[in-house]
Amino acid sequence: MMMNLSHTTIDYPARAMLQPQDRVGRIVAVTGAHAVILIDGDDGLQPKRTPEIGALLRVDTPRSVSLCMVSALSSPMPSHAGDEQELRIIEVEFFGELTKDADGSPMSFRRGVSCYPSLGDILYRASTEELGKAYACDTESAIRVGHIAQEPAIPAMVKIDEMLGKHFAILGSTGTGKSCTVALILRRILEKNPQAHVLLLDVHREYAHAFGELAEVISPSNMHLPFWLLNFEEIVEILIGQQPNRETDIEVLRELIPIAKARYMNNQRRDRSPLQRHRDPVEPGALGVDTPVPYRTSDLIGILEEHIGKLDLRGELAPYKRLKARLESISRDQRYAFMFGSLTIQDTMSQVLSRLFRIPVNGKPIAILELGGLPSEIINVVVSVLARLAFDFGVWNAGQIPLTFVCEEAHRYVPVDKTLGFEPTKRAISRIAKEGRKYGISLCIVSQRPAELDATILSQCNTIFAMRLANERDQQILRAGISDAAGSLLEFMPTMGTGEAITFGEGVAIPTRIKFDILPAGEWPKSNTASVTKSWAREIPADGFLNEIVMRWRAQSFTPDQQASDMPQQGGPLPLAAEPPPQPVAQGFASLRRGSTIFAPTPQATQPRATPAATLAGKPPAEQQQSLESLIRQFRS
What is the pTM of this model? Predict the structure, then answer.
């Protein structure tokens, strides 16, 4: 073997730079991409440290320097005697190589192995320079997210185009730093691409603090997503749901919605010149149930009342009455104000898309949609609308404006169980996963339970950041889709610390274990685990505290962040919500502007109740405003 080593050193000058202590052993078996290494014995002066799982080793071949990763360690015949040399072997997996120039010096890294080593070839630990070349990325189109666990001096780089172009996933159990990882990756992308377009679905209302002025925060209090943007399946989920006899109600709704859309368009056309009418993209008679044009709930209710008043339908009035009652109920429900709350219906589709997809960017390249305050029964519908709009937007702009759709808690919307979730939501997100890259729409899946995710959607994510996952089923899902070169790294997963991940796929040079950078404290998401002992150490006075909770509960205006910041220290008084300033009645009418969501709930507001107009006189201004709002809502219904 020493002769073989000497011969190799003469032929390949690059080997002469290696130190004797870097030598690991020699190859005794090669099978395709795998090899078995017999570790050298100790020299008697200082015991050698065996390379750990995941360490990179190198071996010279005539045309390149092959790189391999340690996948297993074993001692087939262990000895109890302290002075006896044991037989120790390493199993490695080859994943790439450094090509050589004319002088035999290693150059750039490429995946795959073109020239395999042979029996007896010597393996060495990869040097820092070789590691740097293996993990190197084009700095113009890559971002740093941390450093590799094996060598802190080598940055962990992610290629933006490859990661976003073919989707990516961030997976990890609760408490592993998943939210901070999402914030870190997105912030680094936005720092390099200030004109980006990102839509983030924030289920727990934790990311607004992480992005600050870079984000357009859309919450239920300032959200405007008109109901007429919903397709037929989505509006059926809201108005009909899974009630008995739903098929009859669905057919009635399918017939009446195009009529309501035609009425709205005819009313709008009366006020326009013949030339303007000629520019209408769709004629009223050609409207379908899914055509994204406005219509009024009042028109739909009026059509239902017309059918109810027909004598020939006396025996078939139940579906019409149910739909009319549901429309009236949901129009009065404050929780649905962002969708059904506008008194006037205008064609605001361009404004809605502009705000959601950040066109123009105006210094805020990311839109954060806080879903925490929405009714639970409508969240899936909202996600379905947004995913469908994102894909259709990419189709109709021919991919000119790339968009990234970040889906937090994705297992809620695309579960593997076919009996759970909302089918249109699954279909919309799946369509982005399968076809979105063709139109510049990239998908980011964030989940703590990969085993509960639709496997088809997860398989479309070509870059994976796998943080600590203790559940065996979750680990099996990843093993099924990971390459052999990174399979051994998953053994680290149950024992990894917070902020560490196994990353592999198109977005990184090679599979590796990385340690993420730590964001400044002012850029952390509000996802820290609550301190139970500190909260219980504070004395909360009973006076007014529960009343405040009940008021917010009824008004559907509870703001967890505000409540947390208003919580007093131990022994201090409990602050009450600030009383809203009186608002004149005339000013209330002036606030009804086009495309706005009106009657935003205040901390002290309760559900509006109908009040006779005669009782307005003599009331304080604030109560007059609430009574007037009730009258307007009653007039609309």
Answer: 0.76
